[in-house]
Structure formats: structure tokens, C-alpha cells
Amino acid sequence: MIQRYTTWRPHLAALVATGLALVAADITANAQTAAGPTTTPAIAGVVAAGTPIELIRDGFTGTEGPVVLPDGSLIFTETTANRITRIAADGSTSTFLDNSNGSNGLGFNASGDLYAVQVLKPRVGIVYPPSHARTLADQFEGKPFGRPNDLVVDRKGGVYFTDSGAPPRPAGTPAPADQPVVAKPAVYHITPSGELQRIAADIERPNGIQLSPDEKVLYVANTAGEHVLAYDIAADGSIGPRRNFARLEGWRKTDTGNSSGADGLAVDNSGRLYVASTAGIQIFSSKGEALGVVALPKAPQNLAFAGPDKKTLYVVGRGAAYKIALLAEGYGGRAK
């Protein structure tokens, strides 16, 4: 139940009430488009056959970073529109935060501070509440981040995040003359005391990032690779050698290199891993066994469990937002 993580500060409950009072709800049609699948296959323990894939709304401007609020509603980023948007239980949408510095991935700490990786001025920091807003990191060894992509906050207040680096270009296309020199693609850890550590720098395009429910394993989606990667986590937050955790469907060559489209990640209470990718939502057991794929009308970019019992999977991507009723329950100790 949502009560499991209501140790967040009272300002979170206040911000939901304030947002409802100040922002007019944008009620939108729930009619599904004809393109693409509109129901799910059966995946044992996860979703029943024929479950509707409900379109909440299409036409958002950049869709990323969904996380759940204490009341069970959802917020996500419209990165290119420079705002964070809220979806209520009835499907209405409202602006949660304007001028978000191009926030992409989101996460809460135990006190209710909202962390974001940001792409307009690349950085990682707290964006809400305004009184707590600050930058945690914006460069490594003197080089600015290229494109901070996603993050996850652990129970101790440490932050793991990915920097995908400069955007990929078609083969043979030179970099713009005015393109700044940025840090190479990497995975970072900001310790609870604020120290920035680069913990992995051998991933072509690190993207989504997530922790197992027991926080003993760190998962990283490599958009350019054929596998979701996994790392065992030591007591101090450092990680062991990388390993291939699960093989992704849909890995192929593109004009900007190899791609699986692997993006956002989420886990459920049983430790299953959900991966947004070109093929759809790919679901794996805690051992990396492929359990099934839920294809959507538009390729997903990120996902989160929400609703009063965390049994509704919200999926965003390519300007659209969907929801799917599940049998599985999202992990209750994290706002995703």
C-alpha cells in the first residue's frame, strides 16, 4: 500500500493539494488509438491476457521519468517542454512544476525531496520543494556532463545516475564545431555525504538505472547493447564487475549504431525487472529469465507503478502516456 513510503515530509502531501487547487485539470479522452496493440498477452503472475492498454493522453512534449506521489497519482517529465506533469487517478493532467531545467529522470529520497537529472544545463540535483533546490553535481574531472539520463535514490540517500554522453550521430557525420567537450558516457554514484564517484565508464550508452528491492544489485540499461547489465553492490555503495543480466529483444543496427532502445527500468515486489525498449515492456525474473513482452501502440521510454496499491503500470513514451492494470504489485519501498 502507498502508506509504506509515507515517511516523506509533509510538504509532499501539501504540494499535491496545492497543485489541485491552483492548476485546472486537463481532462482528456481515454479512447485508444487504432495503431498498435490495445491489449496485453498473458504473463504469469504479471498481467492477465486481454488486459486493456489504456491511452491516457497523446501529444505530450517529451515523456520521461515517471514516479508516484503519496496519494497514488503520478508525475513525469516533459523534457523538451521544460516541465513536470501530474496525472491524477481519473486521468486528468496538470502542471506539477514549470521551468524544470529539462528534467528527465526523477526520484524521491526518504524525506520527500524530488531529485532530477537535468539536460538543459546538464546537472543532477533537487528540484522540489523550491526551498530545497540545489545542484549536487554538474561535471566530472572538469568536464561537464553530456546528457544526464536517469537516476535512482537508495535508502541511505545515495544517488546512482547515468550520463549518456553526447547524442549519437549518423556514421560519418562530424561533430558540430561548437560542440563542447563533455564527460564520456558513464554511471555515477553520489554518496549520502555528497561525494561524486564514477563507478562505470565502459558502457556505450548508459540509460535507465534501477536497484533491486533489496538494493544489492544495480541494473543499467545500455541502449546500444544487447543486454541489461547488472552489478553487485558493496556495503559502501561501490559496485562489482559488470555482468550481462538479461538479453533484450529488438537489438538491431541503426544509422547511429546498434540499438535495443533499452530505456527506463522498474522493479516489482517479487524482484522482476521491467524494461522499456523498442520491443515494448520486456519483463524478466530476478534471475534474468525472459517472462514476456507487452507491446504498446508507441514505443515506451519509461515506466512506473502507481495507484493506491501500486498495481497499475504507467508507461510514457513518444508523447503518449498509458496505463495497464497488473496482477503484480510494484515494489513498495520506492516511488517507482
Describe this structure in words.
4% of the residues lie in helices and 40% in strands. It is built from one helix and 28 strands. It has one helix at residues 10-22, and strands at 54-57, 64-68, 74-78, 83-87, 93-98, 103-108, 114-118, 123-128, 134-137, 139-140, 143-144, 148-153, 159-163, 186-190, 196-200, 206-211, 217-222, 227-232, 243-247, 252-254, 257-259, 265-267, 273-277, 280-284, 290-294, 302-306, 312-317, 320-325. It starts with 9 loop residues before the first helix and ends in an 11-residue tail after the last strand. The strands form eight sheets. The chain has a four-stranded antiparallel β-sheet, with no helix packed on it. With 336 residues, it is mostly beta strands. The protein has a single domain (2-169, 183-296, 319-325), classed as TolB, C-terminal domain (Neuraminidase), CATH 2.120.10.30. Keywords: Hydrolase, Signal.
Alpha carbon gyration radius: 18 Å
Looking across the biggest beta sheet, what order are the strands in? Answer: 1-28-27-26
Strand proportion? 35-45%
As residue ranges, the low-confidence spans are 1-10, 14-34
> Mean pLDDT across all residues, rounded?
90
CATH fold topology: Neuraminidase
For the record, what is the CATH homologous superfamily label?
Answer: TolB, C-terminal domain
Count of the separate structural domains: 1
The string of secondary-structure elements, in order, is: HEEEEEEEEEEEEEEEEEEEEEEEEEEEE
| Amino- and carboxy-terminal Cα gap | 13 Å
Signal peptide: 1-31
Keywords: Hydrolase, Signal
GO molecular function, one term: hydrolase activity
Pfam family, one: SGL
